[in-house]
Write a structure and sequence with these properties.
CATH architecture of one domain: Alpha-Beta Complex
Shape: globular
Enzyme class: hydrolase
Order of helices and strands: EEEEHEEEEEEHHEE
Largest sheet: 7 strands, mixed
Radius of gyration: 17 Å
Keywords: Covalent protein-DNA linkage, DNA damage, DNA-binding, Hydrolase, Lyase, Plasmid, Protease
Protein name: Abasic site processing protein
GO molecular function, one term: peptidase activity
Number of strands: 12
Low-confidence stretches: 5-11, 180-187, 197-211, 217-224
InterPro entries: SRAP, SRAP-like
C-alpha cells in the first residue's frame, strides 16, 4: 500500500477517542483547479469528529465511529459527507472485543500482509469558540458485519456486529477522489481473509468509549 511521505513524529501510540492522530486527505478535500488530483497530505486531528456547531472538543469522545447507512442524515456527520470531506486513517492495528468464549477478550486486528490498514473516514474543521483556534478532526466509517465470516465474532452476542471500512489497496486514493467507486467502498466490508488477529493479554477497555482504539505508527510513510 502506498502512503504520502510525511513523517508523523508522535511515535507509536494507542489512539483513544479524543486523542490527536494522523489522517490523509486531498488539500481542501478536493482536486486542484486543473481537475487533476492534488498530492495527498497528512494532517493531525482529533480522533472523533467535532462538528462546527459543537461547543467544545469533548464531542469527539462520542463521534469516532459513523454508520455508513445513516451518515448522510446524522447532524454530526452530514456536513462532512455532503461536502465530500473523505479521508483515510492509517493504522497499524485496531482493537476489538472477542466474545466467542463468553467472556470479553481484547483482540488486536492487523493486515495479514503486515501493511498499514487504510480505514475510510470523514474529516471536519472546528473553531474553538473560546480561543478561536482551528482544530481538525475525523471519524471512521462503519458497516454491518452480522454476516461477515471474520468480524461477526466481535461485540456482545446480543449486539449488532459492526466493523470499520478497511479499504482494499486500490481504493485508498479512490475514496478521497470520489465517484461511484468511492460511494460503494464505504458500504462494503473488507474480505475476512485480509485481516489477522492476535489476542492481547491484560489489555482493558477502561479508557475507551465502547472499547475502540487504534494503534498508530510513527514510521515514515511511503510516497503516494
Amino acid at each position: 500500500m502506498l502512503w504520502p511521505s510525511v513523517m508523523f513524529d508522535q511515535g507509536s501510540l494507542d489512539l483513544w477517542p479524543g486523542y490527536i492522530g494522523p489522517f490523509l486527505r486531498r488539500p481542501d478535500g478536493r482536486a486542484d483547479d486543473n481537475d487533476s488530483p492534488a498530492p495527498m497530505e497528512v494532517l493531525t486531528g482529533s480522533f472523533g469528529l467535532i462538528p462546527s456547531w459543537s461547543k467544545d472538543s469533548k464531542f469527539a469522545k462520542h463521534t469516532y465511529n459513523a454508520r455508513s447507512e445513516t451518515v448522510a442524515e446524522k447532524p454530526s456527520f452530514r456536513h462532512a459527507w455532503r461536502h465530500a470531506q473523505r479521508c483515510i486513517i492509517p493504522a497499524v492495528a485496531i482493537y476489538e472485543s472477542d466474545w466467542r468464549s463468553g467472556k470479553v477478550v481484547a483482540t488486536r486486528l492487523v493486515r495479514e500482509d503486515g501493511e498499514l490498514l487504510g480505514i475510510a473516514g470523514l474529516w471536519e474543521q472546528w473553531r474553538d469558540p473560546a480561543t478561536d483556534q482551528v482544530l481538525h478532526s475525523y471519524t471512521m466509517l462503519t458497516v454491518n458485519a452480522d454476516d461477515h465470516d471474520f468480524m461477526k465474532a466481535y461485540h456482545k452476542p446480543q449486539d449488532e456486529k459492526r466493523m470499520v471500512v478497511i479499504l482494499p489497496k486500490g481504493l485508498v486514493c479512490g475514496l478521497v477522489d470520489g465517484g461511484s467507486c468511492a460511494e460503494r467502498s464505504v458500504h462494503e466490508p473488507v474480505p475476512g481473509r485480509s485481516v489477522d488477529r492476535v489476542h492481547v493479554m491484560g489489555f482493558t477497555w477502561s479508557r475507551a468509549e465502547g472499547g475502540v482504539v487504534l494503534a498508530v505508527s510513527g514510521s515514515l510513510l511511503q510516497v503516494l
